[in-house]
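hey m, so remember when u said the C-alpha cells were messed up on ur end? i reran from scratch. heres the input so u can diff it against urs
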Amino acid sequence: MSALPRKKAWASYMTNSPTLIVMVGLPARGKTYMSKKLTRYLNWIGVPTKVFNLGVYRREAVQSYKSYEFFRHDNEEAMKIRKHCALVALEDVKSYLLEEGGQIAVFDATNTTRERRDLILDFAKENAFKVFFVESVCDDPEVIASNIWEVKLSSPDYPERNRDHVMEDFLKRIECYKVTYQQLDPDDYDKDLSFIKVINVGQRFLVNTVQDYIQSKIVYYLMNIHVQPRTIYLCRHGESEHNLHGRIGGDAGLSSRGKQFAQVLNEFLEEQQIVDLKVWTSQLKRTIQTAEALRVPYEQWKILNEIDAGVCEEMTYEEIQDKYPDDFALRDQDKYHYRYPGGESYQDLVQRLEPVIMELERQENVLVISHQAVMRCLLAYFLDKSADELPYLKCPLHSVIKLTPVAYGCKVETIHLNVEAVNTHRDKPPNISRSRKREDALETVPPHD
C-alpha cells in the first residue's frame, strides 16, 4: 500500500517564511533550557522545529576541551575555530529550513557580540528567513551557580566531574565572554530587531517589535514558563461502566472498581504530602466522581473533556467496525490526523489543550484527572513524543504518572495503584487496509464484557 502524504499541522500555517530563533546571553543563563523547551512546545503544536547547539559543533571541531583559555577573545586561533563552527552550524540551519521541511530553527549559542549577530542577520537576509532573538539576562549569582551545578557538571567538557574545578573554570569562561558582551539595545542599535529579553529567569521581560503570529506565540510561551521545582501528576478517571463494556466516549459513571481507585488515589496523595496541590478535572462525570473522593477543592475544565468521537460516541470498536469499516481503517492508517465524523482528531485535541499546557507551565504542583486521549496529548508534550507516537502512548487506568521537570527534560515515574481495571489500550493492527477482514480489524481490540 502506498504511503499516505504527510498532512500539515494546523500550526504550521502560522509561518509564511522560515524563522530563525537566535539565542543571546552569557553562559549558564538558561539558553539551552529555553531552546529545548521552546522547541518541544513548537513541535507539539505542529511547527517543525530543531535546535542547533553551537557547543556540539565546537566539541566536534576540538576533541578535547582544556580550559577557559579557549574562550578568551584574544585567543586568535580559537576565535577562528569558533567562527568556523558558527558558519557550519548556519549551513545546517539553511539545509533544515530550505530542504528538510523545517519551519523554525533555534540557534543555541552565546551570540554575545554585535559582530556575530550581524553575521547571522546577513545570513538570514540572504535566505529570506525571519529572525527573532531571545536574550537571557541574569545577574543572580544563586541562579547562575545552580545552573552550573545542574547542567555543566555533566557536560562533555568536564569528564572528570570535579565540582570545584568545574565551578572555577566555568566562572572564568563566563568572564571571558563578559569582556566583549554587548546586550541587545532596544533604544538605538537594535531598535528595529524583533526580540524578547528574559530578565532574571522571568522576573521581567522586554519585548521589541514582534513581526508575526508565531513570534507572538513564542513570546507568550516564554512569559509563562518558570524554573521553580514542582511535580505534575497525570491520571485517568477511575474505571467507568463504559470501560467495562468496551464503549468509547459518553458520560458514564464509575464502576465499583473505579470508585475503589478514587479512594486509593486519595490515600496515595495523602502519603505524598504534596504542598498546595491543585486538582483539575474535565466536566465529565467519571473525572468529577474520581476527584470528589479526594475531599479537596478541584477545578473543572471543559477543554479537558475526552476526544469527541462524533457519530461513534458510546459505541464499541466492534460496532464501529461493523457500521463504519472504512472509517475504522482510515483511523488506523493515520490515527493522529483522522477526525471522527462529527467529532475530533488528536490534532484537534492538541489545539484544544494548548491553554492547559500554558497553565500547567505557570503552576507548581498539579494533579490532572482526565481521559485516555487527553492524557496522551499532555504526556506527549512533556516527553517530547512525535505525532506518530502520541496516539499510541500507554496510559492505563488506575495508574498515576508522576512528572518531575529536570534540567533539560522530565523525569517520569509510573505508579500503579493496585486496583484491578480493564485494559483500554488498542495497538495499531498489522493490517490497516480498507479491504481487510473483520477479524484483522479487531485483532488488537482489548477484551471487555
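this time it looks ok to me. The first helix runs from residue 31 to 44. if urs says something different then somethings off w ur setup not the seq
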